[in-house]
């Protein structure tokens, strides 16, 4: 039995004879497992444990602190949705900020939008970017776009220095709130997001699972209600390798031109949907965009309670 991980740090990741199991206090009592063909990379960065392995059925897999971030097979269910839900909801997004997202997948998706002129990304961990460039070419292709500027640093610090009203859209592609991403789920962060957006600008943040983290989601929703004076919505998608198989997004807009997230006004053009460099869209379409905002009754009761 080979142990990869740190019991003192809220997670235990064990490769039990040939399998990776995702065990964490964030989802007690359950563990999804993938069969490992080969461990390709394993190192501790300044911020987290970074591992890449070749799985039997999901392609290469990126793990940070024992938690699956990306697999080659299902990443598009996440990257396409976290990107196009906000960007297809506003006309002509021009300036976009990505926080986290060091694998590059969200950048690849943002660059499908021909109206976008500048894409800034602030990722805390240079090792994630390097590892993605080495092992995940279909994701890291996102960094090759000349519109992209990469900044290595903490997203919270970065945002605090941004002038008011700079961005049309901010996408927070973060890891879970245990570890370096903790502050990305807290109120002061959402306040600086709101400030950095133009009137009627939009934010989309990774907002965990309705099956596992209703309390976290309730808290995020309550914070956003106080801070964002435009629309506030929760959407979700299925990602088989994320804990519980689903993940959600918090979508908010600032005061200004109103944004109706459920009815996208900015469909991807032929060029974006069938880009030669990025391949065709695999998951996102306008119907799934609107459907993503339909919530199961138990979640609706908590999220839309006011
Ligand atoms: N799709 C993934 C998921 O939901 O599990 C998230 C993927 S992405 C690789 C998450 C990235 O956020 C990681 O590369 C991590 O280093 C980065 N990150 C965590 N905390 C951060 C912070 N405070 N500022 C900027 N980036 C951060």
Automatic annotation (TrEMBL):
InterPro entries xrefs: PABS (IPR030374), PABS_CS (IPR030373), SAM-dependent_MTases_sf (IPR029063), Spermi_synthase (IPR001045), Spermi_synthase_euk (IPR030668), Spermidine_synt_N (IPR035246), Spermidine_synt_N_sf (IPR037163)
Top-level lineage group: Eukaryota
Keywords recorded for this protein, A-Z: Polyamine biosynthesis, Transferase
Pathway as given in its UniProt record: Amine and polyamine biosynthesis; spermidine biosynthesis; spermidine from putrescine: step 1/1
SUPFAM superfamilies for the chain: S-adenosyl-L-methionine-dependent methyltransferases
PROSITE patterns: PABS_1, PABS_2
Catalytic activity as recorded in UniProt: S-adenosyl 3-(methylsulfanyl)propylamine + putrescine = S-methyl-5'-thioadenosine + spermidine + H(+)
HAMAP family referenced in this protein's UniProt entry, alphabetically: Spermidine_synth
Name of this protein: spermidine synthase
Organism (species): Aquilegia coerulea
């Amino acid at each position: 039995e080979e142990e990869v991980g740190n019991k003192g740090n809220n997670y235990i990741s064990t490769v039990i004879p040939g399998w990776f199991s995702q065990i964490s206090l964030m989802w007690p009592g359950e563990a999804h497992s993938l069969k490992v063909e080969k461990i390709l990379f394993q190192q501790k960065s300044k911020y987290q444990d970074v591992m890449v392995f070749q799985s039997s059925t999901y392609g290469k897999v990126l793990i940070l602190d024992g938690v699956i971030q990306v697999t080659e097979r299902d990443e598009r269910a996440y990257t396409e949705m976290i990107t196009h839900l906000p960007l297809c909801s506003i006309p002509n997004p021009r300036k976009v900020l990505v926080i986290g997202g060091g694998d590059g997948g969200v950048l690849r998706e943002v660059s499908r939008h021909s109206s976008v002129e500048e894409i800034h990304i602030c990722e805390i961990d240079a090792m994630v970017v390097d590892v993605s460039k080495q092992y995940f070419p279909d994701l890291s292709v996102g960094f090759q776009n000349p519109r992209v500027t990469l900044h290595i640093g903490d997203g919270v610090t970065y945002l605090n220095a941004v002038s008011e009203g700079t961005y049309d859209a901010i996408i927070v592609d973060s890891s879970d709130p245990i570890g370096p991403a903790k502050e990305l789920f807290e109120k002061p962060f959402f306040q600086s997001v709101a400030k950095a957006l133009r009137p009627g600008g939009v934010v989309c943040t990774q907002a965990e699972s309705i099956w596992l983290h209703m309390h976290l989601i309730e808290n995020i929703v309550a914070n956003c209600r106080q801070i964002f004076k435009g629309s506030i919505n929760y959407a979700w998608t299925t990602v088989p390798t994320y804990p519980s198989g689903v993940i959600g997004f918090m979508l908010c807009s600032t005061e200004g031109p109103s944004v109706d997230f459920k009815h996208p006004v900015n469909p991807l053009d032929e060029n974006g949907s069938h880009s030669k460099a990025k391949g065709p869209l695999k998951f996102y379409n306008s119907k799934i965009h609107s459907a993503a905002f339909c919530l199961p009754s138990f979640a609706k009761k908590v999220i839309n309670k006011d």
